[in-house]
Amino acid sequence: MGTAIVLRETGKPEVLRGESVAVGKPGAGELRIRQSAIGVNFHDVYVRSGLYQTLALPGIPGIEAAGVVEEVGPEVSGFAPGDRIAYVTGRYGAYASERLLPSELAVRLPPGMDERTAATALLKGLTAEMLAREVHQVRPGTSVLVHAAAGGVGRLLCQLARHLGATVIGTVGSPAKAELARGAGCEHTILYRQEDFAARVREITGGCGVDVAYDSVGKDTFLGSLESLAVRGHLVSFGQSSGAVEPFEVARLAARSNSLTRPILFHYIVQRDDLTRMAASVFDAIAGGVLAVEPGKAFPLAEAAAAHEHLEARTAAGPLLLVP
After folding, report:
1. Can you give the C-alpha Rg of the chain in angstroms?
2. Is 254 within 8 Å of 180 (Cβ atoms)?
3. What is the full DSSP assignment across 22-34?
4. Half-sphere exposure of 212 (CA within 13 A, CB side)
């Protein structure tokens, strides 16, 4: 028997309650995992609240964790008991002390990679990797706008883009967050609540605009992001923390021959080779100091509700994790 947070109804954090669950033997292509650290993400909050109705209830939330292989099922190659692994998944189930996991989702941790670091950095690191190398290939001389530049993904994306040779402009909500963004590689920061960020981007770029704008905010910033683009600039909309983007006329893109993308990470790692290649790049970047990953604040698994409250208060200075 294991312990898991079972979501039986959507609502406030208190709907996250621990239960004993039977894990069972791994089937064909599966691993039985003893989990040591579980990432807590805003995606989990949206699932719990009902904003995302992507988890069949009752169900176990959570999309990111790390741990140790305890048992290998039939038809599994490349893994053995004792292997340290991490994973991200759109199939949920991470809020648990033990679980069965399709082996195709697991990536082996390199020596020296802490399991708690992996559990809080893999999802965000893969997202930054996808944005800067796959969706739009950032190169030396590329001009980049990153919204929420002091956030978890934002800081990693700024660090990676700067490493790749880009000029990085970041929008933030406060002077304290501007300091964090500058520390992550932003050459310019914009307090978007106090000034027109699109006009400021035009000023910074000498009227040209940026080659690519990475927008995880959505409704409140989308049109401004579009206005911030250079000729043939690319708007990458990858989140909607302020709400869904309202419908707009596609013809608006024609003013500067702009392009628009709405990527989902899981579509970029559906092939095993892509997952392992991108994960290796993230782990190398962490080991090499390209990505500076903060230690996570740990909560016991049974206190998942408190972790969600902490995350929603938006006062967390770093990532959050659950420890079984």
Report:
1. 20
2. no
3. ------TTEEEEE
4. 24
CA–CA–CA angle 177, 178, 182 (5° rounding): 120
Give 265-276 pLDDT, tens digit per residue. 999 999 999 999
Q: Which residues does 56 contact at the CB level (< 8 Å), separation at least 6?
A: none
**Domain range annotation of the chain:** 2-121+280-323, 139-262
Residues 80-92: tens digit of each pLDDT: 999 999 999 999 9
Measured in whole angstroms, the distance separating CA 129 from the mean position of its chain's CA atoms is 10
Under 8 Å between Cβ of 170 and 181? yes
Q: Give the CATH fold of the 2-121+280-323 domain.
A: Quinone Oxidoreductase; Chain A, domain 1 (3.90.180)
Its CATH class, for the domain covering 139-262, is alpha beta
Question: What string of DSSP letters covers 130-187?
Answer: IIIIIIS---TT-EEEESSTTSHHHHHHHHHHHHTT-EEEEEESSHHHHHHHHHTT-S
Residue 317 pLDDT greater than 80, yes or no? no
Tell me what the mean pLDDT of segment 294-313 comes to: 93
Continuous segment of H or E residues that includes residue 258: none
